[in-house]
Amino acid sequence: MGATIVVGGFFGDEGKGKIVSYLSFKDKPNIVVRAGVGTNAGHTVVVKDITYKIRQIPTGFVSEDSRLLIGPGVLVDPDIFHKEVSETDVENRIGLDEQCAIITKEHISLDQSSPHTAKKIGSTGTGCGPCNAERAIRKVKIAKEIPSLKEYFTDVPLEVNTALDQGGKVLIEGTQGTFLSLYHGTYPFVTSKDITAAAVCSDIGLGPTRVNAVIVVFKAFVTRVGSGYLENELSEEEAKKRGWFEVATVTGRKRRSAPFNIKLAKRATMLNGATQAAITKLDIVFPECKGVKSFNKLSSTASDFIKNIEKEIGIPVTLIGVGPEVEEIIDRRREFS
Ligand code: IMP
Ligand code: MG
Prior knowledge:
31% of the residues lie in helices and 20% in strands. The chain has helices at 16-27, 78-88, 105-113, 115-121, 128-136, 156-165, 197-204, 236-242, 262-272, 282-285, 300-313, 333-336, and strands spanning 3-8, 31-34, 43-47, 50-54, 67-70, 94-97, 153-154, 170-173, 213-219, 221-224, 246-247, 254-259, 276-280, 317-321, 329-331. The strands form 3 sheets. Strands 7-6-5-2-8-1-9-13-14-15 form a 10-stranded mixed sheet, sandwiched between helices. Strands 10-12-11 form a 3-stranded antiparallel sheet, with no helix packed on it. A two-stranded antiparallel sheet has the order 3-4.
């Protein structure tokens, strides 16, 4: 495994939380480290009928022996950090970098009251944009200045690189999706920084030569919250008819939806230098696939759907989600290793 990065291939909400929690369960990484923007991300994890909605800490908390880290590039909201740490009972194994920038009440109210971010862009209103802006002008507070976080401080880049030097496994969680990248997305309807695999490396202080695998996650259909163009967008009525209608984890907003977009998938594969893909929610598009345990037991329409994606993007689809539970995954990594 070495260092494995998980990134989103569309507009966020591809099911990265599920993929990361599955890999954490299965591979028992020494470290699961959170990269990405900050608390604007909402990752849903379902373990033994309990649904966790996580925004700040690594969703890899489900692997009980893994060390959990938050990289210096990630924005930290101390209230949300403390709340999630106690809800998931990870006080003794979580650490964050002193250099994480801190989201304040002012950032949040600015994000929510500005007509530009709140109305035009459709921001999540979690303060991430204003916080990153303040970081860019070098006025933001960093974690080092917050006493309540002190007991969690650690040198995240050093821990991650040392674990790899010692032959350990490190799982790296990206957030959002490729087309919400500040550089590569549908500007201005994007988030407040780059979130592709290269940015993920920089968020945690890992050089690109040390990465062993990049898994790009696609959902079997495309969704988007907030503003910005969505090719072949369905009406809400049609989305409901197909069972594709979703509500956002963080904001409770309706997600817009569209069929799988192969053009975007190819570009996301390129932009992330992805070596493998994961497809989630195959059972939503092909209900007969719910809970299926192996690739050759999928219906022919569903397996053709996967094979066509593989042909177009040029990398194997190694993980296929067939239900909400962490273990409802067809894992084909052995076939391709
Ligand atoms: P912000 O990052 O909160 O400023 O939001 C900017 C845009 O990115 C808006 O369209 C949000 O809906 C979208 N966005 C940010 N984070 C996520 C996410 O984790 N999932 C889906 N959309 C997101
Ligand atoms: Mg989400």
